[in-house]
Structures are given as structure tokens and as C-alpha cells.
Amino acid sequence: MEANRPLFIPVILGTARMGRMSLHAARLVNQELGKRAGVETELIDIAQLPLPTNDAGEAIKHAGFSATMNRADALVIVSPEYNHGYSGLLKHVLDSCLKEYIHKAVGIVGVSAGPFGGTRVIQNLLPVMRELGLVTIFWDVNFSSVQKVFAPDGKLLDESYVRRIDKFLKELIWMAQTLRQGREQIPLD
Amino acid sequence: MAKTASKMICPHCGVEMNHHCDKLVYATDPQEMAKVDPALGGLIEEFHTCPKCGGVASRAPVPQCV
Lengths: 189, 66
Description:
The structure holds 2 protein chains of 2 kinds. Chain A has helices spanning 22-34, 63-71, 88-94, 119-131, 146-149, 160-185, and strands spanning 7-8, 11-13, 39-40, 43-45, 74-80, 104-111, 134-136, 141-143. Chain A is α/β, with parallel strands linked by helices. In chain A, strand 6 (104-111), helix 4 and strand 7 form a beta-alpha-beta unit. In chain A, helix 1 packs across helix 6. Chain B is mainly beta. Helix content of chain B is 6%, strand content 29%. The longest helix of chain B is centred in the middle third of the chain and has 4 residues, at 30-33. Chain B is elongated. At the A-B interface, helix 6 of A face strand 1, strand 2 and strand 3 of B.
């Protein structure tokens, strides 16, 4: 293995709604990831992916998104909670790939306007992650009352989130390194 | 379960890839449904990763001749 190849961990912003506060959360996580040595990242806004809606699944695979998922060692999914669930568009995008995800780590960031910080959407995403072949970590980040966490211009108002994100990313990076070793070196049998 | 005889070769690096996963996928296409393993309820897909570049590939298992 080329041991010094950096980890690539993109951040997926899982909503296309206008005025989405999750954008600020995704940018913050992306910024914190970018500070880490040996990690490359990019922010993927699902609103910018031109996927058709007259079909679904791998039949509508987007070449650029597929290549990015192929290169990824782990994912961060930033998802707001809409009616206790994730956005339909996020599922539509995730379903467009499969082999690209297998045995890769994923961490989920929940965002809500209420007090629970997206805990319900995270729980709802877990079985989806499992079926896609992704390996979930046990740290989450929960942005509760997100309108109080960020100013309208995106400025972080509560610095305690930086420490929470740090713990979350440490676990995600460890899992990403471990799973890369497994994917590349440890045969199934 | 059928075992694949040959190693996949990374199309970018030309090195042998590591077969690290078999996943059960569910058929939706009528042609695929005919290939469903009745014991498993779906089709097996193999997943391989290149130890040099990290690239991934998948394929259906190729039955090994005996």
C-alpha cells in the first residue's frame, strides 16, 4: 500500500432546500476536516448534482459523483431532519452508487431547528448506511436549535461544536484508516 | 457459493486487486431474476480494491471449474 497517500473524506450536504442552515454545519465540518494533516476533503452539495428523477438507483449514476465516491475513504453526511426523516433527494443521490461505498467509513451529522439535533434522522439513516456497505462510527454531531448555533451569515456562535467535531473526526479518521487497510490488504478468504 | 478463480487487475495500476467483500444484491431485472441463488434470495456481487491506488471494482463471481 502507498502508505502516504492521503485519506480523502468528502462531506455530503444532504438537502436542497432554500435557506438551509445545514449548509453552515457542512461548511464547518469541511473546514475542520481540511485542517487535518493527511486528509483531503471537499464539500458535495446534492443540490448541484444533475440527477434525473424519471429513474433511480445505479441506472442514473453520475460520473463525477461516482468517481468522488470511488476515491473516498470515508464520508461525512450532513443531514437535516425533515418530519423525522432525511430528504428524499439525499436518498436518491446515495442510491445512485453501491460498489463505491463498500467497506468505507461514514459519520453522520444531524441538524435540526428543534432540541434533538437530528437524532431521529441519524437513527433512520443507519440501516440505509448498512445496506450500502458503509461502516458507521459511534460518534455523531448533533446541531440542535441550529438557528442559534450559526448567525445568518454562517458565523459559528457556539465554539463548543468545534470540540465535538474534533472527537467525531478522530473516530472517523481512525475507522477510515483501518478500513482502507482492510480493503486493500485483507482478503475475504 | 461459487468461488471466483482469477484475481481482478486494477485497470489503472495493473496490479492484483484485493477481494474483500461479497454482497448480496437483490434482482429487479427479469433477466437477473433468473440468476438468483435460491438459497440466498439474491445475487452475489464481489467487491475488489486496488492496494496501490485504492480504486474499487465489482463483478459477479465467475464459477471455478472443477
